[in-house]
Amino acid sequence: MLQLGKSEKAFDEAKRYMPGGVNSPVRSYRSVGSNPPFISSASGSRIYDIDNNEYIDYVLSWGPMILGHANPEVVASLQEAIPRGTSYGAPTLLETELAKKIQAFMPSMEMVRLVNSGTEATMSALRVARGYTGRDRIVKFVGCYHGHSDSLLVKAGSGLATFGVPDSPGVPKGVAENTITLPYNDIDAVKQLFDEMGDTIACIIVEPVAGNMGCVPPVEGFLETLRDVTKAHGALLIFDEVMCGFRASSGGAQKLYNIKPDLTCLGKIVGGGMPLAVFGGSSKIMSEVAPSGPIYQAGTLSGNPVAVTAGLATLSMLQRDPTIFKQVEDSTKALCNGLEELAKKYNVPAVVQRVGSMFTLFFTDKPVHNFDDASACNADHFKTFFHHNLSHGIYYAPSPFESNFVSMCHKGAEIDKTLAVAEEAFKMISETL
Ligand SMILES: *Cc1c(COP(=O)(O)O)cnc(C)c1O
Fold first, then answer.
1. pLDDT band at 162 (very low <50, low <70, confident <90, very high)
2. Which residues carry this modification: N6-(pyridoxal phosphate)lysine (predicted)?
3. Ligand 1 centroid to residue 118 C-alpha, Å
4. Which of 290, 320, 350 is the last residue in one of the domains?
5. Residues with catalytic annotation?
6. Please, are residues 268 and 62 in contact by the beta-carbon 8 Å criterion?
7. Last residue of a domain, one of 320, 345, 366
């Protein structure tokens, strides 16, 4: 069985110095009721903890590592870059090169600004939308996560169109009130809201493939409706593709579903495992950003040469060999099909949802279209499944409301081993039914 002695000790010590012992809440394993392994290294599809346990990793740093951990080409490019200095706070050739690559993958991003995290990208995109339209209200969907800035850390009460209440102490009521939340995939609710007050709304921000309530694809007509109502009312449509960019397809959800947003946020893969994120859109809108326009946004480490180097190396590989997207998607498909078959074989109610190379196994008997559906899934089954897998070397996200990811290094052998462990877990669950 899994030995985590050193990790347990490390966690106890970490808790004395950092809230919950971590620097981002989900890492603490609260939602699975145990303690996290402390990681010492990672390579390809595998991560290793300080007790020398090895895992096949389906978290992949919460998405970025599509080429696998410590990809040799990315590592080599960093080894070359670092001796040239790690930050200048001045323009470099690398930034333009990355901007061009991003545009090649997502033509709607004619102009971009590089930032340091997905949170910063979405927060800044909201400011641009408000500055550009001269309106304060924004619309988001329940269960979509866009980072932890004030305007976006808001949940609705019950009811369709609800004016937001803060989701966390420290978010001012006045800020939250400008955030309207709607259920994901609810086309009628969107139409009704825009009929009533569309001309006062600055933007809709949406995960065009939701990943932060587990993997939830948009229903047919949902993204089209968002595009139509925003256009009709002079509001902007922001696609938060921090997770689904380079995962839903090579050109993100906007390519897969053929919808052109006004602004796009990228993060995770675009930084190749370094702190880098992006927001961008048409030149017309982005020209309003300082210093060419009045909407202020800045950053000491923005466009950092080391981070940009990792992003460039990653996107270069993906551009040079676009079959990587298909390979990774095929592996994900094989894994998801296998999981579905096993669930059926053991009569465990389960639905596997996948878009591109992101997926979630939901313990429920019907498709998950929104946060309420996701919340109704069987939490005990998830815990049993999660713990059996972790203790047998399969590392899934430690929460039922997350997507899992596959990399280029997850090949047939990894998928087979993963399914063998999954079979044991489904069997255990079936014995409790
Ligand atoms: C991860 C994520 C963010 C936040 O990015 P950070 O880099 O963690 O700040 C925002 N939006 C989506 C869709 C994400 O998945």
1. low
2. 268
3. 4
4. 320
5. 145, 240, 268
6. yes
7. 320
